[in-house]
Write a structure and sequence with these properties.
heterodimer, A: 291 residues, mainly alpha, 13 helices, 1% strand, B: alpha/beta, D-Maltodextrin-Binding Protein, domain 2, five-stranded mixed beta sheet, 11 helices, 12 strands, 22% strand, globular
Chain lengths: 291, 291
């Protein structure tokens, strides 16, 4: 009987694992098969290289994703520029500088940050960050790429901090002891020894944070103004791939070119996040093998 | 093991039956963001008089409401625009026969910041501004200041109506796409260079904004959407009916609720919410739909 139970549990977990893989493959297949019909009517070159997206145009529908693609990358890049230094700094502080009392208080707070609903972040973007940006840069309004970047940075921070901290913690104690014994200061040990040793873990943390930022929808939809024009800078309104899907999927008649094109955008997004996650996974494994 | 399995089966049965049970005597209304406050208020008053009834009113835009009606997911679709021929044929294809009832009139209002000196425009000028052909306030008699456009997202009926009736072309790609009427009012209030368009129900108590007086052509008298007589006589040029679509001749609860909306009491609420009561021509039209 005990043996049977053991086997059953094994099968249970095996089936769980298989199920997740099947779901993932299913999503991928669905995205591919529902986006293929779009390209019967849309020229693939138009889709990938034109910057006009206006499927419900008064004059002529157009289906180019370039400005949305650039918007997505801009917002994500901006978020990383803010979140990476802050995140690594916080992680280093938590793992090396902070007393255990501080750590015990700070860690749960950072984890709570991860639980703030994205719609609340978007709301903060409209009423707090936006007006602030408008004031600082003397603009007429603050609904722009910078606003989205700041909010996404805040949302990516918990991921970056906790994973980087794990990476720093798993650096063997002996490294630190050896460095200190050789007369290096605490700071030098951190910068020259610990962070380089944990670098692949930290990079993977940042990549995961990036994945989070690329896929985020509600916050950017609310805070970036969503103008479909090609952005001219970070103080311009942008419209990301995700917000386009969110705005248009609700109203689109099923099984039309527009409908399939939205799935095409979904496929592009899926491929981007897949690459980012894949890359972070490869980096993490490289790190594990080294040890 | 079997005990857990049994529990799982029972739990899933309970869940599915709960999901089926509720939908029966609840009225689902979905759609236009312009209409949502009004219809919510109407349904509250209706539920006060009929405490055993329950009506759920949600937004999402006219396009979303119409799509829900076509997909059989709501009883009444609020729409601030007319259904397109394509949508009607699609509905017919699914055995749904949309009937239209007009529940109120709207003087679609163009708004600017209170500190902007421009307070009257022709329809032609408004069109040029939103198409992106006029980009500075000095071109329409204001200060030398670039114009910032605020509009709705493409699932909005107001977006479509304004484009088809006023622009007769595509919106400027630089127009910011906001989530709803209230967000446009809020943005224009904060932005001295802003201009936007919203249902008249959203401007009656708003402070910090100008409601632009409009004329059909240069040389004609300018009129305000806040003046009931000018809206009724058509002197104010941007007037539209606010509609509800239902499947077939209304029966049962749907019919009772619509009758309440069209009653004197219902139309009084329409006025209190800042919109205008239905004129005689639409009364006759409604009677035909109800028959």
């Amino acid at each position: 009987m005990a043996k049977f139970k053991e086997k059953a549990i094994q099968w249970f977990f095996f089936l769980n694992g298989v199920f997740v893989v099947i779901v993932l493959l299913g999503i991928f297949a669905l995205l591919i098969f529902t986006s293929i019909p779009a390209f019967k009517e849309i020229d693939l070159r138009e889709f990938l290289f034109s910057k006009n997206w206006n499927p419900t145009s008064y004059v002529r529908p157009s289906y180019g994703i370039v400005s949305m693609l650039i918007s997505t990358f801009m917002v994500t890049l901006g978020a990383l520029l803010i979140a990476v230094p802050l995140g690594i700094g916080t992680a280093a502080y938590l793992s090396d500088v902070a007393t255990s009392r501080v750590r015990e208080i700070a860690k749960p707070i950072i984890e709570i940050l991860a639980g703030i609903p994205s719609v609340v972040m978007g709301f903060l973007g409209i009423v707090l960050v936006g007006p602030l940006i408008a004031k600082i840069f003397n603009l007429h309004n603050g609904l722009n790429a910078l606003n989205g970047s700041i909010l996404l940075a805040v949302m990516a921070l918990p991921t970056i901090i906790s994973l980087s901290e794990d990476a720093l913690k798993s650096v063997p104690q002996s490294y630190q002891q050896a460095s200190l014994a050789l007369g290096a200061s605490h700071w030098q040990t951190l910068i020259r020894v610990k962070i380089p040793a944990a670098l692949s873990g930290i990079i993977a943390a940042c990549m995961l944070g990036m994945g989070r930022a690329i896929g985020e929808t509600m916050t950017v939809l609310m805070a970036t103004g969503c103008a479909p024009a090609m952005p001219r800078g970070f103080l311009d309104s942008v419209r990301t791939l995700t917000s386009t899907i969110a705005i248009e999927l609700g109203e689109v008649p099923y099984n039309t070119t527009h409908y399939y094109a939205l799935f095409g955008i979904g496929l592009v997004l899926f491929v981007i996040t897949f690459i980012v996650n894949m890359a972070s996974d490869i980096i993490l494994h490289k790190y594990e093998r080294k040890r | 093991m079997f005990k857990y399995l049994r529990m799982l089966v029972v739990a899933s049965m309970f869940l599915t039956s709960a999901a089926n049970g509720n939908a029966q005597d609840m009225l689902q209304i979905k759609g236009s963001d312009t209409l949502i406050n009004l219809v919510q208020r109407l349904s509250e008053e209706y539920m006060k008089k009929n405490p055993e009834k329950y009506i759920a009113v949600t937004g999402g835009g006219s396009g979303t409401g119409i799509a829900a009606l076509i997909n059989g997911k709501c009883d009444i679709a609020n729409a601030s625009r007319l259904m397109k021929a394509k949508e009607i044929s699609q509905a017919n294809g699914r055995g749904i026969n949309p009937k239209r009832v007009v529940i109120a009139m709207d003087g679609l209002s163009v708004i600017t910041n209170a500190r902007n000196s421009v307070d009257k425009l022709t329809v032609d000028e408004i069109g040029k501004i939103f198409r992106g052909e006029i980009t500075n306030w000095k071109e329409v008699g204001g200060n030398n200041m670039p114009i910032t456009l605020y509009g709705r997202q493409s699932n909005s009926g107001t977006f479509v109506f304004f484009r088809d009736a006023v622009l007769k072309g595509d919106y400027s790609q630089r127009m910011k796409r906001m989530n709803g009427n209230a967000q446009i009012v809020e943005a224009v209030k904060q932005d001295t260079s802003g201009i936007g368009y919203v249902g008249v129900g959203y401007v009656k108590d708003a402070e910090g904004i100008n409601v632009v007086r409009a004329a059909l052509k240069k040389g004609m008298e300018y009129a305000s959407p806040l003046n009931p007589y000018d809206v009724k006589s058509g002197k104010y040029p941007i007037v539209r009916p606010l509609n509800q679509y239902i499947n077939g001749t209304p029966k049962g609860e749907v019919r009772n609720f619509i009758a309440f909306e069209l009653s004197q009491e219902g139309q009084k609420i329409v006025k209190e919410e800042g919109f205008y009561p239905i004129p005689d021509e639409y009364r006759e039209f409604n009677e035909k739909s109800m028959r």
